[in-house]
Amino acid sequence: MKRIYKYLFMIIFFISFLFINKVNADYEATVFNGENAKCSLRNDSTGYCFYKDSSFSSVTQGVLWLDNGDKVTVITGHDIASPDSDLCPGNYVYAKYNSLRHGEKYGYYCNTYLKSDSFLTEELKQEFANAGFPESYFESLAYLKTAHPNWIFKAIDTELKFSDAVNGEISIPGNALVQTSSSNNYAYFSIDPQSFDYYNDKFVEYDQIGGSNPWCEANYDTVAYYMDPRNFLTDMHIFQFEGLSYDNSISDENYQSLILQIFKNDYLSNYVADFLEAGKTSNMSPVYLASLSRQEVGIGETASTAIAGTYNGMYNFYNIGATGGESPAINGLNYAAKTDIATLRPWDTPNKAIVGGAIWMNDKYISVGQDTSYFKKWNVIYNYLISTGKVSDPYTNFYHQYMTSIMAPSSEATTTYRSYSNAGLLNTGFIFYIPVYDDMPSSTNRPTTGGWPNNYLSSISINDNNIAEFDGATEKYNYYLDINTEEIEITAIPVSNKAQITGTGKFEITENTTKEIIVTAENGNTKTYKINIILTGQKIEDPIDVVTTLNNAGIKNGDKYISGLSIGTKLDVIKNKIQNANKDAIVEFDNNDIISTGNKIIITVGSEVKTYETVIYGDATGDGAIDAIDYVRIRKYIMGTANLSGAYKEASDANKDGFVDAIDYVRIRKYIMGTADIEQ
Description:
It contains 19 helices and 24 strands. By secondary structure, the chain is α+β, with helices and mostly antiparallel strands. The termini are far apart.
């Protein structure tokens, strides 16, 4: 009986232990106002608190949204005295709580450890669905709609697959650029051969060429992130979808206050009245125009230098015509100097530049349907405009885009948002035109894996002989080796000193084999070069003869001439091929230039010495090219007014029928015109 009580006691104790610990782990906390009632920001430099309270109404994705006094449930963890980024993957809120064990306490709590009611009601789901939004947009829109009931969200169906839209943008060189800096660690840049110069070990520059931070092409994942509207459905970034027309419900005083907020009493603040006039004249938002100017030319000394007319007396507040290259700002000022009555050019005063630039922008972009910052950058609205008949002749998708920077819309939106927020106008009835795509992925993320991408080799050598006609982009080679060679040493030189190489060294050779050299770039990408070692010749004690050496090297030869060589081939390439086939061969030339008809090549194998002349069929003059001079010389020979002999006469027989006649010079003429080829 005592044993039964003992087990019963243990069961009751165990259940009580679980209950007590559950009570202490799941308890209610209250968020309160006050100096410390702020979340700690880890990934945003603005210093704003991103939960809704009486002092600042704002919300951003991934941060718990709480009103002052809201009840939340703490599901794990304990309070801490101050935020610690190493302990919390998100942001913190400051709260007080009551528990049986601790009583009333105050402390910071990680928002990932708190539970709150969802804002996504059935009514909002239906509203968003009726507006044409996919379900993946709902949650973010619900936050925004609850915080700002007057905001209106309209879905714009691009009728494009998301992947097609991204590929369409990156298929056009220079369309989607990112500025180089140490912070992105090259993770954002395209490393396709047209975007990265593997031979010269540098990214291809499209803007600010040769500067310290040039602009280069972004890769697919980066472009996808910045094209995905769902990543920017936050208070701070949604204004890239704001309609850019002038809003008559906002007073002149409020507009002026908003513009001043953007310029922060800096150089551009001297032109507040001009931006207001520009908005009214062009029927565009003055706030957007101010945000665009700040984004394009900066503030302070940067802005005054860019647009103060010090170059040619012109002004350009929006960098219109500032196309890429070494001096985009100068290109923009030269554009400003041209004459166009409709847009008030030349822009030789600040007012003409600000107002005329706005007129130009409305005519070129807003009036043809690209009426948000997003659509000005990403022109994916063509299908929508055609199907709805809103614009009769819009610009086609992916072309006619105002800026090349993929980050520009979000940067402009942030500037606009802060201006509205500081002026207390966030609850104005803004209309946001948000694009949707077909077959959207569940999410898109900016790439994080960086490092230098170059995994090319500049050369591969075997027994100190460079592989003939090596090209870093070509991965497979045949290397013909004298069968009497017992050992080889493979060396390789990478283009980038940040790359690592494996597969080089000394190897015994007894049969045909394949050697692999693996090059690993700093970013982890690998490139494998395969070299097929092919043994040639006979296993003999004495050196093989010259003709056998040439045959083993794959070089056409006769009693007097060597042929079968491509135009532009360097003489060193022939030497490498011959010595690859016979390491003991000695090769001498009468010059060290590229191959041409009449070059003398002296080949020594053992005691045998043979002298050849090179023949490039069609190169009758021996200048290494096939052109009109050769055609004229052959024609004169046929007419009896010029002489041809030796290698030059052999090279004149373009069709190799043993005669130099009209057929040959016709063949050469067709070759020059690109309608025939000459076999070497």
